[in-house]
Amino acid sequence: MRYLIFTDIHGNLEAFNAFLKFAQKRKVDHYLFLGDLVGYGASPNEIIQKIGNLKPISMIRGNHDKAVCGLDTVQTFNPIAASAIHWTRDHITKKNFNFLCRLKQGPLTVTKEIMICHGAPFDEDHYIFGDFDASEAFLHISSQICFFGHTHFPFIYEEKDHIVDGTFLTGESNEIKIEKDVRYLINPGSIGQPRDRNPHAACAIYDTGTKKIKFYRFPYNIEAAQKKIISAGLPPALAERLAVGI
Hints:
Strand content: 15-25%
Low-confidence stretches: none
Number of strands: 12
Number of domains: 1
Radius of gyration: 17 Å
Structural class: alpha/beta
Order of helices and strands: EHEHEHHHEEHEEEEEEEHH
CATH class: Alpha Beta
Shape: globular
Largest sheet: 6 strands, mixed
CATH architecture: 4-Layer Sandwich
């Protein structure tokens, strides 16, 4: 079984289209989406329509998805992010709004081996930054592997004999081998809003046959995404950050 894991599209259609082209060239048996279809970007409707064509897929909601649906307050968002939430509410269609609001809350058990969440398995909005957060997360994970999003950083935390060790992934391609006596907490990085100073979209593929997870980065038309954000009247900072991956 080959799982394609991706997260945090955030209304960036150009990045998502590049991801779809990437996926077409790989043998994929199941898609895992870790939340945040919308927010920041100018193409929420197109993304929701297109993600419905990816099957089979296991999906959960992100904090921006919740906020657009009114299931969470924007008071915890910074002013720029909050303005994008309000913009998305005003521009999303009724059908796509309903789709967004039906997304499941994480964590979600996909198989005995795999769990997915947006922020953390103990709190879907919590950011896992560092070994302390990861140690708390492992206490709430029953599977060997938990994939998470939310931070927009490609990262691997390994837990063996109650010791947690984190690794930040750099470069355009990485690969790890899943070891029998190790548990894993893995972020594939963001499709539409990378924050690791690499503007390329990120995702990962887990092959259960080889027990290997490969991490990928690929370019997309950033300039086109920026122009859409500016034309939509969204804050210019949302366009500017895409070019530098912050």
